[in-house]
Design brief:
Strand order of the largest sheet of chain A: 2-1-3-4-5
Oligomer: homodimer
Number of strands of chain A: 10
Strand content of chain A: 15-25%
Number of helices of chain A: 14
Radius of gyration of chain A: 19 Å
Distance between the termini of chain A: 27 Å
Helix content of chain A: 40-55%
Shape of chain A: globular
Order of helices and strands of chain A: HHHEHEHEHEHEHHHEHEHEHEEH
Structural class of chain A: alpha/beta
């Protein structure tokens, strides 16, 4: 897991090369024409990359994006009519049978399909009309890291290509930003040490970083066996806030920008008024209540790019916390790399 | 909360009367024509009713259903192009500003809109083209119960009306089934007592009852301040299963039918092999490993109807558990009935 976290700048830099950019430009045409909306099939970590796509393609490209319920296609064998849909599958292995089933059905209905996958020989790559290869190299740790950020970057590159943005643009310095985040491992380790006895926590975020919020919780569940619950901060206020008592661990992703002042205020109040033990991954310079612990992202960046960079501290945090707790983050108990649906 | 749980048979019976059936038949026409997919805006408990709609309208009516990310419309002010969409809002109060914003945008784009709400004078009811009134009467407890099952029934009635099913049909005996479930309060209280010291748990389910799974977790969070995590059993196998250790409380909804044998086997194995403390809400006669505790649903019923009935034991369980733990289920700490988005 450690090696694969550290490989991320190289993987992302490779994707941003001429070949990757040409792939993005070619596939962007599948998003136009009579496509009314995008339906994404994904599971696990890839489902969190799908949450990123929902915001990126929604906010930047005006495309409604829905997450498919694959069991409608498989367990119930009642695929809906997909007229107007572009069907996108996200899967590092390309071998989740229910994700493949959604793409098969879309092809049978004559709909455009795209697979974003790390395995060009997989059933998924062989089924979809278009394939965006991640070329992240083999991922050995059961807990996905480099294929997650590669999936996010593929989503971002497609967004830029659909808009016809100039090559490079806002994406060009992602590998350096990710490298800077990898270099911040020591700060993250110190933060992890403060939480080495927790058995439950909540993770809060919004918007583009809802992806990071859910991925952080999943990493804590997988690698550290912590009952970590992710919430959109809005849904959190609709009920789950009732759980917060003195000492309850609350993790949050708060990117820069006045748009997220309410979330900043919320986590400060959870700390100051309810005594929650709060840790935020945040931009440098943001102010919080005194007791709030911080992991700082280096430098200012566009919010829509921030989930690719913010993925690193949450991976490092989960890795260090697993090691602190005596778990093996490479092969958590009871997990297989490719999950077959029961 | 107790009174409102007990009122449910009356509320559901009223909805199934001639007026409610005429409303469903009239609104069903909004689902046809050039509607390619349904986009639902909802928060909190209503979001769980939206999960039910995703399966019911998907499996029974062939309609792809996506859950909107309201913040794309509000925080980011970048509403996507909604061509092909029918926009449905679910909200008991009709006053969540971000849910109203999604419907306003859909109307501005000339799309058909439907509000399913308990308040005909609300901003939501005044904004949407079509309104399905729940007529559940005022709901005083902060934790929604009767408006949740009323929302589920509205979704089911619309599904039947879109198919042109004979009036009554499979829906007719829902009020009696719900009354039988309310009468099972004592069995549920005994089950709740066994878990009165837990501070975290997971809740598992699939398909139509993914709604029940998420709603059970939400009720436990709100009313009992328990860190309850809901998972589709498939997503659970993709990582979170690593959390399960000796004594970990696992709740599951397992309706009748061979389709759910894998879930039945999974919960039995979590009990027998990992020592999880398992409670299932299940059909009579289903077999499980020895240690698995059960709450039995009375009688056989179609799986697609079962979430309306299964809602009752999970409400009763949460109510009794809150009382056992000395919490006030009517006004959990830090919650307001109408949540304004931060």
């Amino acid at each position: 897991m450690w090696n694969e976290i550290a490989e991320q700048p190289t993987v992302l830099d490779r994707m941003l090369g001429p070949e990757g950019r040409a792939t993005a430009a070619r596939i962007a045409s599948a998003f136009t024409g009579e496509v009314r909306y995008v339906l994404i099939a994904a599971r696990g970590t890839s489902d969190n990359a799908a949450r990123y796509a929902q915001y990126v393609w929604g906010v930047r490209n005006g495309l409604p994006v829905g997450l498919a319920a694959p069991s409608i296609f498989t367990t119930y064998c009642r695929p809906p009519s997909l007229g107007g849909a572009l069907v996108v599958a996200l899967s590092q292995s390309g071998r989740s049978p229910d994700v493949v089933a959604v793409v098969q059905e879309a092809r049978a209905q004559g709909r455009p399909t795209l697979a974003i996958t790390n395995d060009l020989d997989s059933p998924l790559a062989n089924t979809a009309e278009h394939v965006f290869p991640l070329e992240a190299g083999p991922e050995h740790a059961v807990t996905a890291t480099k294929t997650y950020t590669a999936e996010l970057l593929a989503v971002a590159m497609l967004s830029a290509a659909i808009r016809g943005d100039v090559p490079d643009g806002e994406l060009a310095d992602i590998p350096q930003r990710v490298a800077a985040a990898v270099a911040g491992a020591e700060e993250t380790r110190a933060a992890a040490r403060a939480f080495n006895r927790v058995d439950r926590c909540i993770v809060l975020g919004r918007g583009f970083n809802l992806s990071t919020t859910f991925e952080w919780a999943l990493k804590l569940q997988e690698a550290c066996s912590i009952a970590a619950q992710p919430f959109s901060s809005v849904d959190f206020l609709h009920g789950p806030i009732a759980m917060i008592e003195e000492g309850f661990p609350v993790f949050a992703i708060v990117p820069a920008g006045g748009r997220h002042d309410p979330l900043r205020r919320l986590v400060s109040e959870l700390s100051a008024r309810r005594g929650a033990d709060v840790l935020v991954v945040t931009a440098p310079g943001a102010t919080y209540a005194t007791g709030v612990r911080r992991i700082r992202l280096s430098g200012a960046m566009c919010e829509w790019i921030s989930p690719i960079v913010a993925a690193v501290p949450i991976q490092l945090f989960s890795y260090h916390l697993a090691v602190e707790r005596g778990s093996d983050p490479d092969s958590p108990h009871g997990l297989a790399k490719v999950t077959t649906t029961w």
